[in-house]
Amino acid sequence: MAPPLRIGIAGLGTVGAGVVRMLARRKDDIATRTGRKVEVVAVSARDRNRNRDCDLSGVRWFDDALALARDPDIDVFVELIGGSDGIAKAAVEAAIEAGHDVATANKALLAHHGVALARAAEAKGVGIAFEAAVAGGIPIVKTLREALLGNRVERVSGILNGTCNYILTRMKDEGLSFESCLDQAQQLGYAEADPTFDVDGFDTAHKLALLASLAFGVQPDPEAIHVEGIRSITLADLDAADELGYRIKLLGVAARSGEAVELRVHPTMVPKHWPIAQVSGVTNAVAVDGDAVALTLVGPGAGGDATASAVVGDLCDLATARPRAVFGWPAVNLRPAGKPAIQRHEGGYYIRLAAVDRPGTAAAIARHMAEQNISLESIMQHRRGRPHGGDRADSAEDPAPVVLITYATTEDAVRRAIAAIEIDGVIASPPQVIRIEKD
Length: 439
Ligand code: HSE
Prior knowledge:
Strand content: 15-25%
Shape: elongated
CATH architecture of the largest domain: 2-Layer Sandwich
Structural class: alpha/beta
Number of helices: 14
Number of strands: 17
CATH class of the largest domain: Alpha Beta
CATH topology of the largest domain: Dihydrodipicolinate Reductase, domain 2
Number of domains: 3
Bound molecules: L-homoserine
Helix content: 25-40%
CATH superfamily of the largest domain: Dihydrodipicolinate Reductase, domain 2
Distance between the termini: 50 Å
């Protein structure tokens, strides 16, 4: 049997302790299947005395993650500290410099510094494994980097943030407010320490940057992504979507657009029959459209066991194989995504307007749409108030909600039509616009 693979873990929270437990629980099968033992030999964490419900006897303790990263008696440095800069970045750089492979769950670190870290790792002949950084327990990194290598991928889209999916699901199913659903997501431990990362779309953007790199050979770069979060979504939108045959999901989408790759994160209307539309609660899903294979992977996107499962899978890879190029393409070959302006985005749109209830309003709306060559697939005028509660009942003087669904058009045309409608004074508040994703 080959010598054991010696693991040093920095960060012993839910995921780190989960990795220690899983490696212990599965040690015999892992040794049989990889041909060597995979052993945790050293750890670093802030508090030595916390009860973590895992056996750390015989394991060396470091108070300093950097010292652990440089330790010559480990083979793999597992970074579970988090954060795009600071100690996590310094420790990963030190581990690479010391010639260690790295496994990490840190999407922010790789989204912001992935190119430099991948170049350093590839120059040193070590790997950076990051299955745990995207969609938790769903093996989408391996799927894009290895299993689908024979495909030319056209689009990757996904529900990559469990907190947002949980909030949108509960708002729709139970008519609850955004704030109370976010509170619950925080209590259940789904949300990031700063939940703005979740609800404003940045967590999804970090994960999308990594998926785009794997699928299209572009440099991970959060700045290349158009990002909108879910704060503006109301119960009225969720109800109207349902009536029209859609679900609203916060999607990350990476799609070929000529030579560039269109990268966007925003609330999206998804046809109800799509597998991704049926994914509810904290669960994640990723759909890949390749020229040979189209598939959707669904699974737990967060949580100790799910994320530990991804880390342990990576460690078993590192135990058996020479590391691959970090993003599946040599780092020197990664090209900028070439951000296409969102104004050039083409697709269908959902537009909800608070129309002033007086003669000529509908005609003005229709005229401005026609002036921009926008063809309407449907127009729906909602009764005032929400039938099953949640919102206050509106009075007769309140504006009437009008919902338009357009055929494929451009973002630019939609924005110009809305600006003209606003100038006309026929709507009482800023309109809601949600992009529709179709096959
Ligand atoms: N806050 C993240 C989520 C955790 O809600 O999906 C996993 O990155």
